[in-house]
Specification:
elongated, six-stranded parallel beta sheet, alpha/beta
């Protein structure tokens, strides 16, 4: 198969490299010349475990190449994947589809023979219809089909997700296109990856519905965590008790500072807007977005409370900045809101993240002091805050940390540690949703409930 990947960002680069590893001939196209030049030199613009090696090996084998020229590769392609960005549009939160439609116009000019155009980008319902209209208007003679094939990649585990997917969704009623897409994904038959053939609009909505549901699970357990703190329950045990029910499942039931990243924030907003436009507002998803936004700043209040009610003039050390470990993605990361709120309260912010600091410097407010490791970060701090659960923060030398800090306070927003372990080292320890019975007793009037 000859495949063209339009867009060499996160989705395009991972997908292109994995398709090449299947044995297909893949050309990744991008308008940013510096990005293509870097990729040709083996320099990967994003951090994703295993991606650098995958790109290098398939480039050396001649199956993966990079260019700024779209016309030539499209003319020879069996399938052209559109994997450009669809960020939230300023003003209304709807997905900005300008890059998708621009790609469709360029692709139309170079089509030669039967070609399947695949929207890999996350797009609202009906986008494929518009892509088809644009191409037919520009090239009424062209022989093509437009397919929706949404991606379900988790940052930090994207290669494994691509090669061992839970499902492959292919949205088209064109039987030729279905057959070609089956050939594209044929190597995954060995892994028994289920292929779900649907209508194009169904495939488009499936992606949004899946992400909105996962965001809802995260937000639900975060609200349960707040309740646990007040009644003296342990949210981790609550989550285990829920997750053992096969109808619910254990994934995405980890209490923390709220969801972020490149998918959930923009996809939930886009789904809300689509539902409103069609007169069927999604009240649950609207509540999820509102609660998640408030939660991020609430985590800053937790830090302030741990510091005695004020952080003015105090140094706060943030361990982790990205929205999750094993990525350098800072988009809608909880740290953005936490830093802003703490600075508003007069705090001095020191920060360390093993992969995300270059991205953070472009997105965080000025005045943040960036450090080389966790121990430099906590030096002189009045509180340390675990914001992202990177593995390097899971086995801190607490004697060394305590000796370096101005005050031994640890706020663990990811519940990495056991409370008794940290408190035994002389720390004031604050976690999320693992309450003790003191709060419940206060609620009951200061004594045991009758």
């Amino acid at each position: 198969m000859k495949i063209v990947m339009v867009g060499s960002g996160y989705v395009g680069l991972v997908s292109g490299a994995c398709f090449a590893d299947f044995g297909h001939e893949v050309v990744c196209v991008d308008k940013v010349e510096s990005k293509i030049a870097a990729l040709k030199q083996g320099e990967i613009p994003i951090f994703e475990p295993g991606l650098s090696e995958l790109v290098r090996s398939n480039s050396e084998a001649g199956r993966l190449s990079f260019t700024t020229d779209l016309a030539g590769p499209v003319a020879r392609a069996d399938a052209v994947f559109i994997a450009v960005g669809t960020p939230s549009r300023r003003g209304d939160g709807f997905a900005d589809l300008s890059y998708v439609y621009a790609a469709a116009r360029e692709i139309a000019q170079s089509l030669n023979g039967y070609t399947v155009i695949v929207t890999k980008s996350t797009v609202p319902v009906g986008t494929g219809d518009e892509v088809e209209r644009i191409i037919r208007e520009l090239r009424p003679d062209a022989d093509f089909a437009v397919v929706s094939n949404p991606e379900f990649l988790r940052e930090g585990a994207a290669i494994d997700d691509f090669k061992r997917p839970d499902r492959i969704v292919i949205g088209t009623d064109d039987l030729r296109a279905q057959a070609l897409m089956a050939d594209v994904y044929r190597p995954l038959y060995l892994n028994s990856a289920p292929i779900l053939n649907t209508s194009r609009r169904t495939a488009e909505l499936t992606k949004y519905a899946a992400n909105a549901f996962l965001a809802t699970k995260i937000t639900f357990i975060n609200e349960m965590a707040d309740l646990c703190e007040q009644v003296g329950a342990n949210v981790q045990d609550v989550a285990r008790g829920m997750g053992l029910d096969n109808r619910i499942g254990s994934k995405f039931l980890h209490a923390g500072p709220g969801y972020g990243g490149s998918c959930f924030p923009k996809d939930t907003l886009a789904l809300i807007k689509t539902a409103q436009d069609y007169g069927t507002p999604s009240r649950i998803v609207e509540a999820v977005v509102s609660v998640n936004d408030l939660r991020k700043r609430a985590m800053a209040k937790k830090v302030v409370a741990a510091c005695g009610g004020s952080v003015r003039g105090k140094t706060i050390a943030l361990l982790g900045l990205t929205f999750k470990p094993n990525t350098d993605d800072m988009r809608d990361a909880p740290s953005l809101s936490i830093v802003t709120a703490l600075q508003d309260g007069g705090a001095i912010i020191r920060a360390f993240d093993p992969e995300g600091m270059e991205q953070a410097k472009a997105m965080l407010p000025s005045g943040v002091v960036y450090c080389n490791d966790a121990y430099e970060c906590v030096d002189g701090a009045h509180a340390a805050v675990i914001v992202t659960e990177w593995n390097i923060f899971r086995a801190l030398d607490f004697d060394r940390v305590k000796a370096a800090m101005a005050a031994p306070i640890l706020v663990d927003l990811r519940n990495v540690y056991r409370a008794e372990q940290v408190r035994a080292k002389g720390f004031t320890y604050v976690d999320v949703g693992r309450g003790d019975m003191s709060a419940a007793k206060e609620l009951a009037g200061g004594g045991e409930a009758a």
